[in-house]
Amino acid sequence: MKKKKRDNTVFVGVRIIHGAFFRRRRRLLHDSLPLLLSVIAGCLLFLLSVLSFLYPPITNNHLHLSPFNHRIGVDVGSKLENEIVFHVPASGGSAGRDIWTSRQSNFYYGCSNASDHFLTAAVSTHPDRYLMIATSGGLNQQRTGITDAVVAAHILNATLVVPKLDQKSYWKDKSNFSEIFDVDWFISYLTKDVEIIEQLPERGGKAMTPQRTRVPRKCNPKCYLNRILPLLNKKHAVQLTKFDYRLANRLDSDLQKLRCRVNYHALKFTGSILGMGKTLVERMRMKSKHFIALHLRFESDMLAFSGCYYGGGEKERKELGAIRKRWKTLHARNPDKERRHGKCPLTPEEVGLMLRALGYGNDVHIYVASGEVYGGEETLAPLKALFPNFHSKETIATKEELAQFSSYSSRMAALDFIVCDKSDVFVTNNNGNMARMLAGRRRYFGHKPTIRPNAKKLYRLFMNRYNMTWEAFASKVRTFQIGFMGEPNEVRPGRGEFHENPSSCICESSEASARGDSKAEIQTSTSQTNDVENSTDSSEVDEQFTEDDQDWPETDYTESDVRIGRKGLPDGMDLDSGLLKSEQPVLEEIFSD
Asked: Which of 171, 272, 327, 336 is 20 to 30 A distant from 411 in Cα terms?
């Protein structure tokens, strides 16, 4: 009996101890469960952060994606097979050429003197004919108008009145001719070519009232003689309105050389603009022996006008779409098609990658001529990462120094024009007026390197760049850019716009002629590009995006377009209104500079 009682006591004791132990265990587990979950969650977060650091984000945003290292391959276990590394080097590497000068440039020079057959102003000017023009657009578009106005006055044997600058367009710059250009120099330099006066003379004690009219775009000499000469003979003073690209691209050699004398010699900026421009150039030279000037042209108005898309999502579409609605005559465009055809400006990052591939390292100093870049610093960040020595007139000059220019867009554009002209290498990101004018000027004064992206070919390369090594990418860039580097004879004479390719004013030195191999070498280089990449030639150059093409809805002039009507006036001209009835409203040109 005692034994049985003792066994029961032991059994009860064990049960009590067992129950106490498991109750404590359950309580401990219950109390520590939140802490355990927190530890597990922390480990998972740490693992995710490590993975996100090792692998770059996947995104289609072309504006902001800028990895210097990008790996592509197939993960098989712990081994990455077929690995491709796109690593952008800091240095430009060996480009196999002098990146700061043009080949063969020493064998060519600008030549614009008149021939012995060219009539001087003293012989040709009619005493009672006065031609006035009203320019259109920004600084460089107005420059083309001024240049062509001198030639038009010579064709008409008329006295030219100093041109009136556009003060009502997009830029709303109130500057007159003498506030941007040295008017005395302009008149005196052209004394032998065209008689120029500052204002219309009085007749009978009263100011003359000019007859206002407009000529078609690309109007040739016969067009001027048929359309404008009858008006000059009748009214004695005629003002041609919206005078931009109103003279034929192809003229005889003497008239083309007159264009060059005006553009490259007679049109000189005022002393204050030249002085500030010289200061900016000197400050860039203090920073580096060589520098690049980049006309970035990546402002919101430019992107809206181009109809291109850069991966900014619905925000970009809404913002640029709203700007585009300002111009009712613009047609809807397919952004992908525009970019495939090379009609979209490169992003700042793409410009930087192109330059690195062409041999320019991160120690190169870049002067950027640009307005407010779309996307601001976030858009510029990849370019600045590639080229940290990044400057503009606002960063190398004080607000006080720029104060006399900052309220006038044309004067600020003139400062950029000077720095870009004096740079060792000029890079343009579109084919607008400033790009054309500077390209022609740099050809005329020594063929200084002028790089224009071969956007049609580069587009496909940029899209596929992470599927190749940097070395393969850079090699293709250099191949595609042959013919787009500002070398002599890149564009056949007569092709393209004359202000960009002033072939009539480029002469070949006797040394080059004696060697007889300068043109052949360039043609051979171009031929190699054609064989490899399906014909990169001047016809493709003409397909590149040009701002001015959008401002040409009018019918270009042809000789069959002119028939002399009643009273010696051309058919289709309304003498009272002074306008051509056949003309359609012209889209305001705001994208030229």
From this structure: 327
Q: How many residues does the chain have?
A: 593
Query: For 357, how many CA atoms within 13 A lie in the half-sphere containing its CB?
Result: 28
Residues 522, 490: contact at Cβ < 8 Å? yes
- Please tell me which residue, 516 or 471, carries the higher pLDDT value: 471
3-state secondary structure of 488: coil
d(CA 509, CA 143): 29
Pick from 310-314, 329-333, 458-462: least confident? 329-333
86: helix, strand or coil: strand
Cβ–Cβ under 8 Å, residues 487 and 450: no
In contact, 446 and 429? CB cutoff 8 Å: no
Query: Which residue shows structure tokens 């305001």?
Result: 588
DSSP state of 209: -
Give the tens place of pLDDT for each residue, 356-410.
999 999 999 999 998 788 888 999 999 999 999 999 999 999 999 999 999 999 9
Report which secondary-structure segment, H or E, holds 413.
helix 409-422
**Could you tell me the two tokens for 580?**
């051509």
Please report the pLDDT score of residue 36 as a whole number: 60
- Tell me if residue 71 falls in helix, strand or coil: strand
Which pairs from 197-200 meet CB under 8 Å and 24+ separation? 197/130, 197/159, 197/160, 197/161, 197/162, 198/161, 198/162, 199/161, 199/162, 200/130, 200/132, 200/161, 200/237
Report helix, strand or coil for 418.
Answer: helix
Q: Do 592 and 437 form a contact (C-beta atoms < 8 A)? A: no
pLDDT surpasses 60 at 104: yes
Closest CA to 152 of 130, 182, 184: 130
Residue 463 has pLDDT above 60, yes or no: yes
DSSP letter string, 491-508? S-TT-S-TTT--GGGEEE
- Diameter of the chain by CA atoms? 155
Q: Give CA–CA dist 431/439, Å, rounded.
A: 10
* pLDDT tens digits, 186-203: 999 999 999 999 999 988
Query: Nearest Cα to 364, choosing from 418, 296, 289?
Result: 289
Distance CA 213, CA 232 (A): 11
Q: Residue 81: in which H helix or E strand, if any? A: strand 79-87
The SS3 of residue 464 is coil
Query: Mean pLDDT across the stretch 430-450?
Result: 92
